[in-house]
Each structure stands twice: as C-alpha cells, then as structure tokens.
Amino acid sequence: MTIREVRDAVRSGARSASDVCRDALARIETINPHLNAFNTVIADRAMARAQAIDRDRDRWRHAPLAGVPVAVKDNLCTSGVRTTASSRMLEHYVPPYDATVVARLEGAGAVIVGKTNCDEFAMGSSNENSAFGPVRNPWALDRIPGGTSGGSAAAVAARLTPMALGSDTGGSIRQPAALCGVVGLKPTYGRVSRYGLIAHASSLDQVGPLSRTVHDAALTLGVLAGADPADATSAAESVPDYTAALTGDVRGARIGVPRALLEGIDAEVARAIEAALDVLKARGAAIVDIDLPHAKYATPVYYLVSTAEASSNLARYDGVRYGFRANPEPGTRNQTLQSMYAQTRARGFGPEVKRRIMLGTYVLSAGYYDAYYLKAQQARTLILRDYDRAFTDVDVVAMPTSPTAAVRIGERVSDPVQMYLMDVFTVSANLSGLPAISVPCGFTSGSDGGPGAPKLGGSPASEGGLPIGLQLMGRRFDEATLLRVADAYERDTEWSKQPPPLIPSR
Ligand code: GLN
C-alpha cells in the first residue's frame, strides 16, 4: 500500500494502526533476511506507538501520516534507539534526542518500525561500505541497491514500508531510488532541517523521502519541510501545500535537456530517458536543449568539497566523547592519548571512510588548499551559475539519475574512481543546492543494448528487468513545479506499480 492508502484506511477506521503495524513487522521479518535492509527493527516500540494512536483516534483523525509505518535511515538520530550510521564507530550509540525530521514524522502520526542500513557515514554509491554487510537489490538479489540510502530504497521497493527517509549528500536518495525502482526526492538545501542527521558534508547534506509515488513524496515533504531553530541553515521560506501542486497539467512547462552531458551513457538508460521525455511532450511540455558547460567537472569538484567537509566532521570520533574507544592492547603499558585516538580511528572506521578523511585532510592542508579546495569551490560556483542561467529559460532540467542500472555486488568495490563516477548526474544538485527527484522510467530489457553500447557495469547486460530512473531538477525552493512534472509523468506510466518479481506481493 501507498502512504495515502494506509493513512486513509486508518483515518476512516477501516484498519487499525496496530493491524497495519503488525503486518509491516511480519513482512519485514520474512523478507528482510534476504535484503539486509534494516540495521535495527524496533517492533515493541512500534507496536506500542500504533496502539497509542488507536487508543486516541480523535487526536490523529486529520494527521497526514496517521498510522503509516515508516523506516528511517540509520544516520538519523532516534531518541533511545541505536543509531549507527552503519559504522563500528557508532555500533552501540544510543542518541539522547530525536532528529527534527524524526520528531516531525511522529508528530504527523507515522509509526517508525526501524533503522535502515546504509553506507558507513553515508559514503558510497552501492551500500557495500556498511559495517553490517551490503544491502541486496529486491529486483536482483546479487546486485547493489545503490547507495547510500540503499536500505531505505530496498525497504520501499520490497513493500516493507510505504516510505523511508534517506539523506542525500551527492545522490544518496535519488540513486538508490533509481536502482530500486522507487521515487526519491532531495529537497532544496535548507528546505528540511539537518538537526540530528549525522553529518557527512554539511554544505551538501539534505534529508528527504523515498516512496512508491510522487504524491507520497509530496505529502512527506510537507511534513518534513520548514524552518527549525535547531538548524541555522534551515530556511524560513513558507511551506506550500505540495500535494495541491499535483494537477497533472504540464502544458507550457519547459524541460531542459543537457544533451552534451549525456553522450556515452548506457544505451538502455538513454532510450528510457528519451521515451520519458516523449511522454512529457505528449502532455504539452516543451523539451529544449540546454548547455551546462561546467557540469562535466561536477564529480571531481564534489569529491574535493565533500571529503574536505567530511574530514572535519569526522574529527569528533576520537574515542573520548562518544562511540567506540579502542582499549589498549593487553600487555601494552603507558598508552598515550595520541595512541588511543589513533587506534580508535584505525579500528572504528572502515576503508572508504579512512580514504575520505585522508583525501579531505590533504586538500585542506596548507600547501594544497589553494590548488584543490579553493579551486573546487570556484568551480562549484561556475556549476551553480550554469544551472541558474539554465533556469532563466527552463522550469525543470531532465537527465538520467544514474549512468547504468544496478551492477553486481562486488563489481566496483575495488575501484573507488569507477564507484565515484556513478555519481556524475546526481552531485550537481547538491553542489548547487537545487531540489531534484528520481522517478522510475523503465527497466533494462536484457538485450545487448544496441550496437557499441557500453556493457552494464562491465558485464553483459543479459539480465533484464532492472529499474531505470529519470532525474528532474528544479529551481531552488520550487519543489512544487518539480513534483508537478514528476507526478504528470507518473500518471501516464505504469513503472511504479510493478512489484519486484522476487518478492512475494503479500
Ligand atoms: N555517492 C556519493 C558519496 O559517496 C554520495 C553519497 C551521499 O549522497 N551520501 O559521497
């Protein structure tokens, strides 16, 4: 069921919140062992909460998420519930407070059933960097779900919960949404509070929903969005009724396509995007070519800026304040503070996190700051200006979310640069602070993809049926237009309705 269906059933009394919650927990118990989508399931707490909603129906009668079971990425703090960021460093960390988004979900009547697996500290593009093992893609269990909100995407795709929260620093909501065949929305930077989100790169991080439909993403955004005194970067802009924007009318909307950027992508992905643009054109939108001359630098710029910020954010995990502390090896005497820091960080962080800390420290170091960090910030401004210029002419920019469909688990882990290149289409939105959404737009056919087509992740694209995502980007704080176009597209297609064949539908 979608959020809307569950919520309406609970509000009308057709189903109790407890019933809905019990079903969701039972389904998680049977299906999650195949996916590893959850780090923690909080069955007792969820049932208690659902029963409290049932006991006080009047209070929740108009709540936008009344009785809706939801999952929350494990880098969002939940009071009294272990929050690990999928790291050994925080394996036993129990926050004393809720992230603002968690409090807002519960205030809207949602029932949190668990915390979803992700890449360690939200660093990765495949969910293989989790200290608790990779998440599996519900469409093909030997493939990645995408990262870093892979557990959230898998949970929604496998119909475990109608919505899950993710976080997006460089594509981590949109890319797993695309690879798992669900909707993923990254709001404008500042639209949603980051208070209680475990920081990866503070100028890029945003929280947002993964859901089955655009409507549910719009509904959830309305709950999450708005200023928060606890986050000075949250914006004061008023929050419109996003669901009211879903009129289906895109006549006259101008959709920009950066053709030059799309050269050389997987042929099946390219075909699906062209077909999606045709659907929007048939609804009356105008498709126009745009030029984003600096967008090709987005990936290197992102990996300089994000690692610099991450190296600073992760300095707090020193074994003193909270989280893991390495005790001295037996027989070692006179452990120094320095060696305690070093051992804590050597054992607490996984390899990708260490790589980022080293890279980030390097680009911020005295001799290289100007050559790398400063240069990256300048290039970031040029990328942002490209988009601002494009948005004087178009309402929305369209491109693929990911250059390929889901690759096999293990296929890219040994080559970090190949992994980073999977982010080529998603990082620009974070560098520019723009809102962006991924909506399902087809499946790989399993054919050879046409003459000269790049092979899917280095292996023959012989297995079809893998989801492909269309990415739409919008003007800052204009999520309403973005959602309207995405919803109009969804109305004319059936992609979102198909459940993964491997997953029992009941
Ligand atoms: N894949 C990107 C990275 O590894 C984005 C991660 C994210 O959005 N959290 O940094």
Write the layout of secondary structure elements.
Elements: H1 3-12, H2 17-35, E1 38-41, H3 43-55, H4 57-60, E2 69-73, H5 100-107, E3 111-116, H6 150-157, E4 163-168, H7 174-180, E5 183-186, E6 206-211, H8 214-224, E7 254-257, H9 267-282, E8 286-289, H10 298-313, H11 337-348, H12 351-363, H13 369-390, E9 396-400, H14 416-421, H15 427-432, E10 436-443, E11 467-474, H16 479-491
Parallel strand pairs: 2-3, 2-4, 7-8, 7-9
Antiparallel strand pairs: 1-3, 4-6, 5-6, 5-10, 9-11, 10-11
Helix pairs in contact: 2-3, 6-7, 8-16, 10-12, 10-13
Residues 122-125, 148, 168-172, 200, 306, 423 line the site of glutamine.
Task: Quickly describe the structure.
By secondary structure, the protein is of the alpha/beta class. The chain has helices spanning 3-12, 17-35, 43-55, 57-60, 100-107, 150-157, 174-180, 214-224, 267-282, 298-313, 337-348, 351-363, 369-390, 416-421, 427-432, 479-491, and strands spanning 38-41, 69-73, 111-116, 163-168, 183-186, 206-211, 254-257, 286-289, 396-400, 436-443, 467-474. α10 (298-313) crosses α12 (351-363) and α10 (298-313) packs across α13 (369-390).
